Amino acid sequence: MKRYRIDGGEVHSIADLYEQLNRELMAEQDWLLGPTLDGLNDVLYRIDSEIRDGDPATLIWLDHDHSRAALGFEETQRWLNGKLAQPNSFNQQGIQSDLDDLQNGTGKTYFEIILEVFADHPLIELQLR
């Protein structure tokens, strides 16, 4: 069984999270995962295919409460504003809607979005500790 470990106490930003993910999920690869949700999803699909070949995987996220706080409202707002600053790269209306929802208390934080990405890969057990 493959086991991956995220040290949530070392996650202070989205960039820090991807450093952890690269260390764990990309150790045997000759490229690094950029800080994108689509990229993470692609990597998890690769791991899904390995699991189907008989090698189950667990990702243990230690001190996830620290990560939840670090990837909360402020970091998510910074991330969404960064996307709004690139009008030719992202769906501005959708991003603005996400930002409005976040500011109204009904939107998802980056941490919650990451959990949703993992939930789309039920063959990978995510343990929040």
What does it look like?
The protein is an alpha/beta fold. It has 2 domains: 2-64 and 111-128, Barstar-like (Barnase, Chain D, 2-Layer Sandwich), CATH 3.30.370; 73-108. 53% of the residues lie in helices and 13% in strands. It is built from 6 helices and 3 strands; from the N terminus they run βααβααααβ. It has helices at residues 14-25, 37-52, 64-70, 73-84, 92-103, 110-119, and strands spanning 2-7, 57-62, 124-128. Strands 1-2-3 form a 3-stranded parallel β-sheet. Helix 4 packs antiparallel against helix 5 (92-103). The longest helix has 16 residues, at 37-52. It starts with a strand and ends with a strand. The model has no long low-confidence stretch (mean pLDDT 96).
Uncertain spans, ≥5 residues at pLDDT below 50?
A: none
Give the distance, in angstroms, between the N- and C-terminal Cα atoms. Answer: 19 Å
Domain tally: 2
Q: Give the % helix.
A: 40-55%
Averaged pLDDT? 96
By DSSP, the count of extended strands is 3
What is the CATH H-level superfamily of the largest domain? Barstar-like
Shape: globular
Give the CATH topology of the largest domain.
Barnase, Chain D
**What proportion strand?**
5-15%
Task: Compute the CA-based radius of gyration.
Answer: 15 Å
Query: Helix/strand/pairing class, anyone?
Result: alpha/beta
Number of helices: 6
Reported CATH architecture of the largest domain? 2-Layer Sandwich
Sequence of strands across the biggest β-sheet: 1-2-3
Order of helices and strands: EHHEHHHHE
- CATH class membership of the largest domain: Alpha Beta
Largest sheet: 3 strands, parallel
